[in-house]
Amino acid sequence: xxxxxxxxxxxxxxxxxxxxxxxxxxxxxxxxxxxxxxxxxxxxxxxxxxxxxxxxxxxxxxxxxxxxxxxxxxxxxxxxxxxxxxxxxxxxxxxxxxxxxxxxxxxxxxxxxxxxxxxxxxxxxxxxxxxxxxxxxxxxxxxxxxxxxxxxxxxxxxxxxxxxxxxxxxxxxxxxxxxxxxxxxxxxxxxxxxxxxxxxxxxxxxxxxxxxxxxxxxxxxxxxxxxxxxxxxxxxxxxxxxxxx
Length: 245
Description:
Elements: E1 3-4, H1 8-17, H2 23-36, E2 45-46, H3 47-83, H4 94-111, E3 115-122, H5 125-132, H6 134-151, E4 157-162, E5 165-171, H7 175-191, E6 193-197, E7 200-203, E8 206-212, H8 219-235, E9 241-243
Parallel strand pairs: 8-9
Antiparallel strand pairs: 1-2, 3-5, 3-8, 4-5, 6-7
Helix pairs in contact: 1-2, 5-6
């Protein structure tokens, strides 16, 4: 009967040499190294038992290795999500806005599909902060993020653009359809009660600027058009939309 050795060296080698894509080679390698160490050992075990124990060890390391890889991938994904997300509103942040808009503009130029952009600002937000405090102001921003998130289609994306300003990218959407979308959004904000204190609600309105992308247009003028239109809506009385063709 042949004998094989369970030796610490075998365990170390089996762990270091393990590669998930070549399990069969791994098993063979473990047996070969066991053969090299069978002469000098504190304990000699039958071949079948040796192989069983080695297989159990390899299975243990395989399971732990897969768990570690899965945990690392989840951690990396979570870190990426945090790096592109605004923690107060739950929307994407301004840095991700720049990356995403660039990608959508490139896709629009390549395939000739329509693209629109909305810039919206909460009306009189500074007054809300001064009157009710910054904690209440943060609650308003958080609620605004929820409203925007609920209003999006699967292809749309919303961002906290800065302070109380937000941006929405609308792929596959021309200016007129974007205008209708903006109006529904405006009405949603107007009808939404924002709880500031117990038994006290606040009405929050928004001014929205709409811009439609023109083929081969630079990104900066495209954003500026939406931003200028938003300020025009403010000047015209707030709680309204402005879209210049």
